[in-house]
Each structure stands twice: as structure tokens, then as C-alpha cells.
Amino acid sequence: MQSNATSPQQYLDELPEDRKEPINALRQQILENLPKGMEEQMNYGMLGYVIPHSVYPDGYHCDPKLPLPFMNLASQKNFIAVYSMALYAKKELLDWFTSEYAKQCKYKLDMGKSCIRFKKMDDIPSKLIGELTGKVDAKEWINIYETSVKDNRKRKK
To answer: How many CB atoms are located within 10 Å of the residue 105 CB?
Structure first.
């Protein structure tokens, strides 16, 4: 569910009541652990955590006018989602996360390639998401991203 909000505060203000507390708890952990060189802004109609053009002028290869995405947080129709591109791009991070999730949560992990879905508002591991946020710094994320883009271009040739 994309929002038309133009600022993170507007996004938060427009959340349904039952989503405000869990989204705010996740957001607080993300912001407390967000690596230097990254910032919060609206991105794809969600709360976005990005490497801004001031740090990475090339931007996102799909649309260079956009900053380089790192993580997103969204209230979807039937769940809250955390989109972590680093989980998709770094296998050892995915392995760590799935192991820690199993130790900390009572419900089975519901996850796509980079999307972690939380359908039960009483079992959202906010601190684990915060820890995940801090596992990859801006420089490492740029290196992972650039290597991935370069590898994809080679495969297409």
C-alpha cells in the first residue's frame, strides 16, 4: 500500500491506529542503528532509508534521480513489512538474521527475497530489525550494490 505522504511525519500521522505503535517501535530501532551516511526519507511511498545523493551522487541505477535504497518500512494492507536489500545481497547476513529470528520470535518467519512480513503485531522483533540495520555500513552497501550492478550487466552481455 503506497502512501502519498511527502514526509516521514505525514506518513506516521496517517497510519491506522493499530499500526502506529509497531511502526514507531521499528522506526525508532532503525533510526538508532542507521549507519552514518544514510538517512530517512519517503521512498516508493514508504519510509525509506537511503544513501542520499550527497554521499552517492550516482543514485539508483534504475532511476538515477532517486537515492540509493537500503531499507524500507511500510504498513501494508495485511501486514507490516521491512524491506532489507542487504538481506537479499549478502548471504551471511540472511543466515544470521534467520537464525536470530528463530531464537527471538514465536511465529514462523514470513519472508520473501528482501521483504520480511509481520502479520502478528505482538511478535515484531524491533531490536533485531535495529541490529540488522546496523550490520552494513554505507561504504559496504555501496560496494555490494556496485558489484551487483556490474555483475548483472556482465550476465546480460
So the answer is: 15
Between the CA of residue 60 and those of 8, 31, 43, 96, 128, what are the distances in Å?
A: 20, 22, 12, 27, 27
Q: Do the bridges between strand 46-51 and strand 115-118 make them parallel or antiparallel, or are there none, so unpaired? A: unpaired
pTM (two decimals)? 0.92
Distance CA(75)–CA(20), nearest Å, equals 9
C-alpha cell at 58: 550516482
Say if residue 77 is exposed, middle or buried (CB neighbours under 10 Å; 0-12, 13-18, 19+). exposed
The C-alpha cell of 151 is what? 555483475
C-alpha cell at 47: 519510509
pLDDT digit string, tens, across residues 11-69: 999 999 999 999 999 999 999 999 999 999 999 999 999 999 999 999 998 899 999 99
Cα distance between residue 139 and residue 20, in whole Å: 32
